């Protein structure tokens, strides 16, 4: 039966595991354990032994951020494990941490310790310009989203996978409520920075915005298009200048392709709006320009790689080559690709807008804004981000290029 690990019990309880003996050394009394989990849901331990270091991640039967009053099934660890395996197969070795061991009953995963990696969100707050993230993440999204869909999988294989991940309902329920609904009314666990009240009231009275949010929720819940990471924000990515790893896919499920990309770009835009709060005498102008370049390049790489896969790996039942290329009509497949990318583009803008709102108005805020101690300054960073989010969500079918969106971000940020 499940028992949460502690710093004291971990070495004794995991002593018999080959994976740990191999990576740390067999003498468990020589292992040093630290608990480093600062996320919203789980326990995370760094375990260091004479031969090396590993991460042990264990789910808790409740939401850590809120406490035992909000139960959450341990099976999320099962979905995280299965998502990591698929992401590595689809995006390539080195795109996620290597997995050494999984114990379903104890809801624990032993995985590679990434060092000297840091959480991307932290690096962006510190003003670090990571040279690889746009390329690595654009490729990661295109490969996982394309290869996990009916564009590339056999219909039977995808339907089996859809059934496997369908049971991750409680985690989807968190997103359905915390992201798409709670920010738009006075939900109990919501909070926002003092000073934002007039804008918050305006947004919660905004009928077009609420309709857009519900339309996007509908898409999220009903469009089981591909295996998503499901929580692809900058806190779910670890980086060095040379390496990018995506972690934490416990929210994985079959949903709309645009969701992961939209959440990712939203988090870059939030990092952009938060820069004014981290200037402390040093201008962040170059960091702002860098973040907009990252947005531009992530989307460009995504589009190019998705298009390449479309042209070379379209082996699933959708838009079959037998309808187009085999009949000497390659332009038919190109027209279909344009339509698919266009609808993905509009949806990702909507998801991005809603993600920005929930991080400022809902329960789960992000460190980009939260680490700005001066609350008046924080509110001055968050207000333009909220306006930007509203514009994206409501006008997503009238925005035609990433340059247009970045231009809008710059203008709103300066207002
Ligand atoms: C109660 S969980 C709150 C948030 O933390 C996770 O990282 C997800 O983003 C979720 O929405
Ligand atoms: Mg997480």
TrEMBL record:
Its EC number is 2.7.1.100. One of its GO terms (molecular function) is S-methyl-5-thioribose kinase activity. Residues 33-290 form the Aminoglycoside phosphotransferase domain. Keywords: ATP-binding, Kinase, Nucleotide-binding, Transferase. It is an enzyme of class 2 (transferase). Belongs to the methylthioribose kinase family. Homodimer. This is S-methyl-5-thioribose kinase. It comes from Aquamicrobium soli. The gene is mtnK.
């Amino acid at each position: 039966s499940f028992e949460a690990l502690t710093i004291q019990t971990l070495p004794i309880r995991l002593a018999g595991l080959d994976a740990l003996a191999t990576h740390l050394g067999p003498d468990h009394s020589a292992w040093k354990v630290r608990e480093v989990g600062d996320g919203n849901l789980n326990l995370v331990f760094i375990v260091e032994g004479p031969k090396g270091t590993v991460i042990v991640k264990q789910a808790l039967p409740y939401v850590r951020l809120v406490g035992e009053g909000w139960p959450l099934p341990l099976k999320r660890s099962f979905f995280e494990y299965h998502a990591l395996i698929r992401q590595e197969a689809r995006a390539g070795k080195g795109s996620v941490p290597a997995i050494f061991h999984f114990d379903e009953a104890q809801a624990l995963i032993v995985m590679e310790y990434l060092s000297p990696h840091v959480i991307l969100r932290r690096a962006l707050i510190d003003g670090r310009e990571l040279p690889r993230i746009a390329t690595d993440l654009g490729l990661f999204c295109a490969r996982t989203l394309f290869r996990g869909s009916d564009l590339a999988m056999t219909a039977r294989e995808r339907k089996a996978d859809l059934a496997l991940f369908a049971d991750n309902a409680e985690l989807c329920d968190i997103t359905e409520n915390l992201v798409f609904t709670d920010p738009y009314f006075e939900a109990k666990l919501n909070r926002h920075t003092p000073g934002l009240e007039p804008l918050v009231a305006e947004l919660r009275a905004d009928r077009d915005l609420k309709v857009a949010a519900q339309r996007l929720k509908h898409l999220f819940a009903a469009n089981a298009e591909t295996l998503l990471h499901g929580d692809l924000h900058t806190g779910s990515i670890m980086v060095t200048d040379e390496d990018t790893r995506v972690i934490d896919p416990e929210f994985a499920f079959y949903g709309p392709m645009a969701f992961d990309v939209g959440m990712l770009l939203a988090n870059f835009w939030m990092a952009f709006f938060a820069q004014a709060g981290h200037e402390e005498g040093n201008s962040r102008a170059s960091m702002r320009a860098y973040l907009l370049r990252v947005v531009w390049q992530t989307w460009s790489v995504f589009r190019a790689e998705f298009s390449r896969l479309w042209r070379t790996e379209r082996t699933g039942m959708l838009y079959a080559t037998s309808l187009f290329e085999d009949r000497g009509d390659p332009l038919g497949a190109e027209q279909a690709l344009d339509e698919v990318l266009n609808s993905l583009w509009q949806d990702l803008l909507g998801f991005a807008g809603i993600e920005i709102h929930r991080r400022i108005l809902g329960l789960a805020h992000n460190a980009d804004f939260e680490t700005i101690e001066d609350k008046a300054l924080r509110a001055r960073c968050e207000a333009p981000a909220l306006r930007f989010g509203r514009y994206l969500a409501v006008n997503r079918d009238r925005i035609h290029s990433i340059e247009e969106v970045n231009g809008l971000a710059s203008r709103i940020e300066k207002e």
